[in-house]
Amino acid sequence: MNLRKRIGFHPLVVSLLLLSASAAFATAPFPPFTAEFTLFRDNEQVGQSVIELKPHGNAEWLIETRTNASLYTFNFSDREQSRFRWLNGKPQPLAFEKERQRPGKTEIVHQRFDWQQMTDSGERGKKTWSTALTTGTQDLQSHLLLLQLDLRAGKRELNYPVSKNGRVRDYHYAVVKEEQLETALGTLNVLRVERIRDPGDDRQTISWFAPTLDFLPVRIQQYEDGVQQGDMQIRKLSR
Length: 239
Known about the structure:
The chain is mainly beta. It contains three helices and 14 strands.
């Protein structure tokens, strides 16, 4: 039996699907990628992270960050995923999911963006919300893609309205300087970017973005009270 006939494929349908996929890639500002990182704390390897961007059908895309770590015999994991579409060359979030596991505690967040009804709704444990949605609002993952796009456009001061747990917060970043960074991918020219937090906030986030890699972050450090909480360093990139 002809397999193509049996499962109902038609050459025209296949051609249209391929053209549709090609069009989706052509309109996307970034190609799909998988970036793998080693996670350190105080120069000790404690886990790994992955940042992945991929198409999701119907002109939608996924950007996801996954982290697994072990510290003092305890296991930790985080997963954040944004389903979005490219609109006028920028990400427009459609749904956001987060799962955070700590010893004895699990946090799960589901969030939906309805751009027709202009509502932002979601659940975090027993808490639910439904608020008005403002044009340009991003989620925790999609705004990082917009950050890469703005860096590519040459911007040095960057502000994004980010919806988190039913409340929109301003995420403010600034390019501190250009420098060279030794990585597993070789020596890279990078932009050092810091998140500008509110006065009194003792957290610090420093990221290094590589222009030759579509401004992908190749290293991310987190500090709290001046103590390093994590250091993500890229080890492999697939595109």
